[in-house]
Amino acid sequence: MRDAHWPAGAFAAEFDDEAPFVAAVSALREHGYKKVEAYSPYPVPHVSAALSSHRSPLPLIVFASGVIGGLLGYWIQWFANAVSYPLNIGGRPTHAVPAFFIPTFETTVLFAALAAFLGLFALLRLPRPWHPIFEVDGFERASIDRFWIAVDARDPLANASTTPRALESLHALRVVQLSGDST
């Protein structure tokens, strides 16, 4: 099984302390590497700031879905009450905007919430039961006491000869090449 996110040729480096880990992430970003991921046993604020290079499209997706949900909710009420089955009850108009407000609001919130929930899973490519870095011996310590940096092979600066040397020059304990397959 292949993971399209990490093709064969990606490299990972292990660090035993936070200081060289933070310095390595900063150095890689300064050298121009774009597709870098960091794994640590606890949140490291400087690393998060160094790696965040683009805004998530999730707010736009949630907003658009909310607008579509609101419009759809309003349209369903209008069509049912004013076009499909109009009833004149007590001289009330068939197209009553105040009566449509609360259900419209509810469909707006429903569509936005569903878009946020499903959009997050889609953007994070979850569930992902397997990742090439899971095959690296010792990677399980990333949840205990080790820090890891991975450079994607599709990065414009990634190269089979220069990337491992760049990671080793950042005082990594070891550098491994990710295979990209489950064997």
Number of helices: 5
Low-pLDDT regions: none
Major β-sheet strand ordering: 2-3-1-4
Q: Mind telling me the C-alpha Rg? A: 25 Å
Shape: rod-shaped
SS-based class: alpha+beta
What is the average of the pLDDT values?
89
- Separation of the first and last Cα atoms: 9 Å
Strand content: 5-15%
Number of strands: 4
Largest sheet: 4 strands, antiparallel
Please bin the fraction of helical residues. 40-55%
Description:
With 183 residues, this protein is an alpha+beta fold. The chain has 5 helices and 4 strands. It has helices at residues 18-31, 45-51, 58-84, 97-123, 162-168, and strands at 11-15, 36-39, 147-151, 174-177. Strands 2-3-1-4 form a 4-stranded antiparallel beta sheet, with helices on one face. The chain is rod-shaped and about 80 Å long. The relative contact order is 0.30.
Could you write a compact summary of the structure shown?
It is built from 5 helices and 4 strands, in the order E-H-E-H-H-H-E-H-E.
